[in-house]
Design goal:
Oligomer: heterodimer
Mean pLDDT of chain B: 82
Helix content of chain B: 55-70%
Strand content of chain B: under 5%
Number of domains of chain A: 1
Number of helices of chain A: 9
Largest sheet of chain A: none
Radius of gyration of chain A: 18 Å
Number of strands of chain A: 0
Radius of gyration of chain B: 28 Å
Largest interface: A-B, 51 and 46 residues
Distance between the termini of chain A: 42 Å
Low-confidence stretches of chain B: none
Strand content of chain A: under 5%
Helix content of chain A: over 70%
Distance between the termini of chain B: 65 Å
Largest sheet of chain B: 2 strands, antiparallel
Number of domains of chain B: 1
């Protein structure tokens, strides 16, 4: 019961207060900023959620193994990469072999949704907070879901900004970044932080 | 508008084009996390630029090899492994150079290995690409990233911390809130808008200069009288009212 509570608390934290995009600007790329349809955003987010959640099972074991190791700062990132690469190769080959229809849909988005800063950043945050297995997996799941929600918010924001009277130089990416900055500030205030005086 | 002139202008001012028009951060939205959250001081920007130079150059060269031999999905994996190796080497160089960068950059120092610009561009190299354009393109990308990182870091360090390169300087207004990521988003948006405005003005200036040069040196050569008559203005009809003659 306690483990389930830790799982859900970590997931909720990662989804809202420590959202990868709005709180840490992780995983921002042209793929996220310029998606054409919400279905593409959901697909990308779902793939990312799958990769980060399954990799977190291996990463939690790796974190336990590296605890107390004097070379942890050197070994950590290569260890994360090894875990993620294993899941990536298995996902690619298994879908190609046994789920051909799914493979045709996901094979283009899989590399980009796997090797990005949001995925590895979530693992670093978990490691820095010395999360256990349940917390690591919960945090990973929350990061994935929060990332997907953020992609959709950015998509709909872009649509609304496109029909708003915006100065010519600000149209497109500039005003979108200003919008995301204001959302980030709102979230920062919502979780109880105050601007330093 | 003559697009050939625009191409000529961009070729002539290739460095300016790389910094403004083809800037990977401002135009393509790559590597935004490092600029928004990491660039809070000039030392951070310098550390990230050195890391980016090493990681991006070597990974692009590795990408030239992998693009000929491996399918796309495997290419991304191998290139990321190469960039991870280079990240560890760059970290070993940067940490002694800038003590304290580990605390200020934190995990962003390690996340440079999976920066979007390197992962995306190294895996998208064409099989027929030549070495020199790839190298110059990669250098241009790093220059563009460094320019944006230094500009943002200078503003945020000066107005947020009241220092420049760690040295305290008098500042009229110090706002600690500028060091929080939300301001990085807003500042990057404004910087991008400024770059677009500057690029349009520069392009307009160059086009105007070229048009003036054309007008000064244009000659019309007349080859025959018939041609001259062809271009002669038509005779003007006399429309004034003549007084009626009295019988």
């Amino acid at each position: 019961m306690e483990n389930m509570l830790l799982f859900f608390m970590a997931a909720l934290t990662a989804l809202s207060a420590e959202n990868a995009i709005f709180a840490r600007s992780l995983g921002l790329s042209k793929t996220v900023l310029f998606i054409n349809r919400p279905q593409a955003g959901i697909l990308y987010g779902a793939l990312f959620t799958w990769m980060i959640t399954v990799s977190s099972l291996l990463v939690s074991g790796l974190n336990r193994f590296l605890t107390g190791n004097p070379h942890v700062s050197v070994l950590r990132f290569p260890g994360f990469l090894a875990c993620v690469s294993l899941v990536y190769v298995c996902t690619y080959l298994c879908t190609k072999q046994w789920m051909r229809q799914l493979f045709n849909i996901i094979h283009r988005a899989l590399p980009v949704s796997t090797f990005n800063s949001a995925l590895f950043g979530a693992f670093y945050v978990s490691a820095a907070n010395a999360h256990g297995v349940f917390q690591t997996v919960g945090y990973a799941l929350g990061t994935g879901v929060g990332y997907t929600i953020a992609i959709l918010i950015i998509y709909y924001a872009r649509k609304r900004l496109a029909i708003s009277p915006v100065p010519r130089s600000f149209r497109g990416l500039p005003v979108l970044l200003v919008y995301i900055g204001l959302l980030s500030l709102a979230l920062y205030g919502l979780i109880g932080h105050g601007l330093p005086t | 508008m003559k697009f050939s002139r625009i191409k000529k202008y961009r070729k002539k001012h290739s460095l300016l084009s790389a910094l403004l028009i083809r800037n990977p951060v401002l135009v393509m939205g790559l590597d935004l996390p490092f600029v928004i959250a990491g660039a809070v001081s000039l030392k951070n920007a310098a550390a990230m630029s050195i890391q980016m130079l090493m990681i991006h150059m070597v990974t692009m060269l590795a990408g030239m090899l992998t693009c000929r031999a491996l399918p796309y999905w495997l290419r991304v994996l191998v290139n990321t492994c190469v960039s991870t190796g280079m990240m560890m080497a760059a970290r070993a160089l940067v940490v002694p150079l800038f003590p304290g960068v580990t605390n200020s950059l934190g995990m962003y120092l390690y996340l440079m290995a999976v920066n979007g610009m390197t992962v995306l561009l190294s895996s998208s190299i064409d099989k027929r690409a030549k070495l020199w354009p790839v190298i110059t393109g990669a250098l241009g990308n790093v220059a563009g990233f460094s320019l944006v990182a230094f500009l943002i870091a200078l503003l945020r360090e000066y107005m947020g911390s009241g220092t420049i390169w760690g040295v305290a300087v008098p500042v009229p207004l110090k706002l600690d809130g500028l060091l929080i990521p939300f301001f990085g988003f807003i500042l990057t948006g404004f910087l991008l808008a400024g770059a677009r405005f500057l690029n349009k003005r520069l392009l307009a200036f160059v086009m105007l200069e070229a048009a003036r040069k054309d007008t000064r040196y244009t000659r019309i050569v007349v080859d025959s009288v018939e041609t001259l008559e062809h271009f002669a203005p038509p005779p003007v009809k006399d429309t004034t009212k003549k007084p009626r003659e009295e019988p």
